[in-house]
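Sample pair:
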Amino acid sequence: MKLKRTHKCGKIRSENIGEEVIVSGWVQKRRDHGGLIFIDIRDRSGIVQTVFNPDNQDIFEEAENLRAEYVVSVKAKVRKRPDGNINSEMKTGEIELDVKDLEILDEAETPPFHVENSADVSDDLRLKYRYIDLRRPFMKNIIKMRHQAMKITRDYLVNNDFWEIETPILTKSTPEGARDYLVPSRVKEGKFFALPQSPQLFKQLLMMSGMERYFQIARCFRDEDLRANRQPEFTQIDLEMSFVEKEDIFEIVEGLVKNIFEIANIEVPSEIKEMSYYEAIEKYGSDKPDLRFGMTLKDISDIVEDSDFNIFSGTVKKGGQVKGITVKNGADLSRSQIDNYTDYVKEFEAKGLAWIALENNEIKSPIAKFLSEDEIDKIIKKMEAESGDLMLFVADSKKVVANSLGNLRLKVAKDFNMIPENEYEFIWIVDFPLFEYDEKENSLKPQHHPFTAPRNEDIELLSTDPRKVRSDAYDLVLNGEELGGGSIRIHDTEVQQKVFNALEMSEEEAEEKFGFLLEAFKYGTPPHGGIAFGFDRMLQIMSGADSIRDVIAFPKTQSATSPLTNAPSSVSKEQLEELKIKLDI
């Protein structure tokens, strides 16, 4: 390399006019005009326009051979662009480089897609050629934002007396929730490590070790059925604190989130409001409510419990409920559109969807004949409906009603463009139930994990009515997305045993799964709590990216594969034999 870079492309400005510079980068675009060749050269910092003059014949002929994505270095003199050619949209738009020397560092084949923001390319193709996709300004800026967010996280937490401590990647399988990724041990035949789903147990051990304030930008792994915005490996901001209550954690977290979101010029309230889990489910049908629009769920069970519409009254008498949402100006929806919404709620186990439309203060509904005039008047009042509105109802168990109507609320809001852009509503969801009931297993399961502390006033219920126990858990929610979740942890062995008893977990099972943690409990455990943030999801919201894959340098597809490396892949027979593994496929 004979031309050693002296300046970055995107950093050259008017004050450099007259200087001789050497820049290096990729050929973004070539244009031939009036006997001159214009080459835009791009590096990480930006783009600069270079000019090749036929007076320098040898260099000019070399420039004629340049193609998109060639890697080059040029020596040039910085000069002011002619007045008519100034580009105010480019940071370097007032200057250009008059090239004196050119070095082609590497040639390039024609890329499979253009390196530009507007490239209309399939996800599979983008991921197969991710190293080219990452050259696009949109992707480059997201990776820069990710780096900035990591630095801000480290700086903020260190300044607040946290220590960054790494926890093991090869650990013990504790199959709770999602499936573990297993790693066979060569030196311990028939034994397996697991990749961590989170550093949960280790960060609690660090509190028992007296570290007091820990954090980690942690890599985590879950072998679960994937959804659009899930990845088998992901990053979380993980932190834990000793001698604290949840308010102390909220204060630290709100400061951190405020600093991170400043990167995207998103304002975070100085104090984020709280909402109980029960209120969130009651009003929004979700423990991660989107508060940017209204259309809350209304309960009409008391109005229809004795009605002649048996679907409503029968459901209430069986312990279920009837709730609805009011779609403003939705009365003119066609029957086929309503049928589509009916099919949609069935995806969430609802049996159907009832509706009442108000058109010019007249009732239009297939169920109106089963309801008295008084019942209809009370329903309209409860639903806060006006002429031109459409009311949609689900009658089922409380769980199905919440899930189906909560999701319908979001779908309708999107269909009717009710969700404002560039608006950010943060909320803490608190007082989750400690347990959830698994109907298939006919048993209780932890809502979060078995080390979540119950509310102090509910501890006695662990032995008498565990389904009513509230936890000291909390989630930070933004625009219907969970940014992070955590809890105050159990530090009392007696309370921990009561939780295991409620879960019908035997001493042998507890010892097998968590023996090393339970052993540590015996030697003095401080009150402690923490939280973990989905770093990738946070970046997706901040950047406005369509997919979580856009904020990860080398992500997997929705089917947990890598088009770039063709992972996962087969391994040799010799490797399997060394691990004493036989495949049954």
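The domain at 125-272+528-585 is CATH 3.30.930.10 (BirA Bifunctional Protein; domain 2).
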